[in-house]
Amino acid sequence: MTRFACAIHGKMSRLLGVLLLVAGANCMYASNSAVVDLRPNNFDNLVLNSDHIWIVEFYAPWCGHCQQLTPEYDKAATALKGVVKVGAVNADEHKSLGSKYGVRGFPTIKIFGLDKKPEDYNGPRSAAGIVDAALNAASQKVRKVLGGKTSGGESKSKDPKDVIELTDENFDKNVLNSEDMWLVEFYAPWCGHCKNLAPEWAAAATELKGKVKLGALDATVNTLKTSKYEIKGYPTIKFFAPGKKDADSVQDYDGGRTSGDIVNWALEKLAENIPAPEVMQITSEQKLRAACEDKPICVVSVLPHILDCQSDCRNGYLKTLSNLGEKYKKKMWGWVWAEAGAQPHIEDALEIGGFGYPALAAVNIKKMKYSLLKGSFSYDGINEFLRDLSYGRGGTAPLKGAQLPVIIETTPWDGKDAEPPQEEDIDLSDVNLDEKDEL
Question: Which of 66, 292, 298, 309 is catalytic?
Answer without folding.
Answer: 66
